[in-house]
TrEMBL record, chain A:
<feature type="transmembrane region" description="Helical">
    <location>
        <begin position="17"/>
        <end position="39"/>
    </location>
</feature>
<dbReference type="Pfam" id="PF00528">
    <property type="entry name" value="BPD_transp_1"/>
</dbReference>
<dbReference type="InterPro" id="IPR000515">
    <property type="entry name" value="MetI-like"/>
</dbReference>
<keyword id="KW-0472">Membrane</keyword>
<feature type="domain" description="ABC transmembrane type-1">
    <location>
        <begin position="13"/>
        <end position="203"/>
    </location>
</feature>
<dbReference type="InterPro" id="IPR043429">
    <property type="entry name" value="ArtM/GltK/GlnP/TcyL/YhdX-like"/>
</dbReference>
<keyword id="KW-1003">Cell membrane</keyword>
<keyword id="KW-0029">Amino-acid transport</keyword>
<dbReference type="InterPro" id="IPR035906">
    <property type="entry name" value="MetI-like_sf"/>
</dbReference>
Automatic annotation (TrEMBL), chain B:
<feature type="domain" description="ABC transmembrane type-1">
    <location>
        <begin position="71"/>
        <end position="260"/>
    </location>
</feature>
<keyword id="KW-0812">Transmembrane</keyword>
<protein>
    <submittedName>
        <fullName>Glutamate ABC transporter permease</fullName>
    </submittedName>
</protein>
<feature type="transmembrane region" description="Helical">
    <location>
        <begin position="196"/>
        <end position="218"/>
    </location>
</feature>
<dbReference type="GO" id="GO:0022857">
    <property type="term" value="F:transmembrane transporter activity"/>
</dbReference>
<keyword id="KW-1133">Transmembrane helix</keyword>
<feature type="transmembrane region" description="Helical">
    <location>
        <begin position="109"/>
        <end position="127"/>
    </location>
</feature>
<comment type="similarity">
    <text>Belongs to the binding-protein-dependent transport system permease family.</text>
</comment>
<dbReference type="InterPro" id="IPR000515">
    <property type="entry name" value="MetI-like"/>
</dbReference>
Amino acid sequence: MSNEVFQLFAEGFWNTLWMSLASFAVALVLGAILAMMHVSPAPPARWAAQVYTAIFRNTPLLVVLVVFYFGLPKVGVSFEYSWQWALIVLSLYTSAFVGETLRAGINSISLGQAEAARSIGLTFGQSLRHVILPQAFRTVVPPVGTLYTALVKNTALTLILGFQELSAKTEDMINQDKAPVWVVVVGICACYLIINLPTSWFIHRAEKRAAFAR
Amino acid sequence: MSNQHSTVLFDALGPKGRRKVALYSALSALVVLGALAWAAVTLNGEGFFDQQRWVDALDQLIVENTYIPGLLNTLEAAGIGCVGAVVLGALVGFGRVSRFKAVRFLASVYVQFFRAMPVLLLIWIPFTVLNHLGTDINGLWYVVVGLAVYNGAVLAEILRSGVNALPAGQAAAGHAIGLTHGQVTRLIIFPQAFRNMLPAVLAQLVVLLKDTALGYIVTYPELLKMSYQTAGSYPNSFLQVLLVAATMYFVVAYALSKVVSLIDKRMRRKVARPAKAAAVPVAADVDTGA
């Protein structure tokens, strides 16, 4: 593999990796806020979270990308770089799924746990910190990990914005005959496997641990 | 999560608590409405709500030549893709739970590999490579094959977990009364696994439908591609045309996922549970039903 091809792969790999990690970090924060809104006793907060979640869960990511990137500048919302759009759309989209997962995690704890915590006199904050969240956390780690692998794959869609991640690099390499096709195909598959296989292994381990802990 | 019941987080509220919640409700309603109003005013300033823009975007010409054919193409790709994915998923899925180690291994390599790949790549690498070599195939087939191969892997995994979720006693009981392996699979395991996994399979097929939007990349004229092209020739209604298309996707996917969750609720009652879970069936149902 020539040096230039390696350079292209490395660039694409790095861009995919940092974009997925950065948008995942933002999505976790937004998702946590959404989850709080989901379980809030105030109905308007719940409704807002439900509408947000329904919209992003039922619209294809590519459609969201196209509407945001090509459509929003028409109403005066624009950013200079395509990575900004990629980051915004990926985090907004993923946060809907994170919120749902966290909500399901909180709801998966049986009522008795919470009632027991309150009946021994723990305050709201204490029962959350010592009883509910530790259990919820263990339950949600595997599904949240799965969301990360999905996000890595979704990052590929940002090539339509011209963001130079792995899949965009492949097109360049194939179309400009920089390397034999098979080298490019094997290389790109290897890159995605390098990111995703360790993640799924970690998820698998976390699943087993969560199963033992009950 | 009504205020009359206690939940994981809150006890049933007393009069003071209810007043507090009413106050927070009013506050959060104000925040939500405020954000919406701000967005509306901003958009209005940019002429987003100009009547003409929406009338143009919903013009009969566009409806007949863009939205409807686009949606039909989307549904066609989704339909063929679903059939392919289910066939592949069944083949590989049964490979995953096969008695033979080699078959299990091959099936698991298939699943691991394709689940780690972006669907986009599976549609797009064949497209780029074949285009580069100068072969011209209808874009539909790139979409269908890519989606079938990827979702086949996902469905295979669903099938495997559907089979594995059954208590081991089910198969053991079948063998004990003298059924052959094939009979156990056909008469005992599969019917129950089918009920177990049907909701997950249907949910995945809805995802497949949404993913047909990737046809945009291989210039298959599905809803997104056609709307994007049309939008290009209506500079004043550009965003509006795209939003109509997005709404169509939303309506189809939302309706289908509601149907799936209905089926999910009905199917839940009919499958054998492990002995441990069976001791507390009520709690398990309450958690998932909420």
